[in-house]
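[Automated response] Your request has been received and processed.

Submitted sequence:
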Amino acid sequence: MIRPPGVRGAAFGTAADGNGRDDLRVRRRISAALGIPEAWAIVRQVHGTEVVWASRAGPLGEGDALATDRPMLPLSVATADCFPVVCEADHAVGIAHAGWRGAAGGIVAALRTALEQAGAPVRRAAVGPGIGPCCFEVSEDVAASFPGFVARTRWETPGVDLPAVIRAQLEGVEEIWEAGACTRCDPAYHSYRRDATKDRQVAVAWLNST
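Generated structure:
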């Protein structure tokens, strides 16, 4: 698991770490390594903009972001080209699953708003591995949904710079860490665009008890 420096409760998985969201044996191993409980809060990801406030572990319905002010309640999303984004406040934490639909709809901004409305402005953020502008080929119609963020892939087709879209939604946050890895380029990560895989890596966020 990748532990972003400066963020107190966040970890981003690689393919080798396994899918702790769905495999309980893997979850136990990851939880033990991170020193967090084995019971995680999860949502059924639908590429939308719904933020779910978590007060307990377990499945919490549909959504693409989770937030909590409960210490040591792990929040998790699973990705395979979409970006996991952790937002950390002084007394709360949130995590988002940001694909192009969620990014276009403002899922990261929605998570920030949910935390701010709970009296927890975001101080730090961490953006995990996801598909880079080098590989994120899109149609002209999709590219038109991202004015100012259109890119060209390595093979010179229309693309979108999703990390830049996410950074824009984090504008004003004091500290932002980025993994900077492209999941399609790097075989260390699962990539749906590269392999049409059903496998996922996980990201976890939690609020430390101290």
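Summary generated for your ticket: Residues 10-130+178-205 form a domain with the CNF1/YfiH-like putative cysteine hydrolases fold (CATH 3.60.140.10). The chain has one domain: 10-130+178-205.
If you did not submit this request, please reply to this message.
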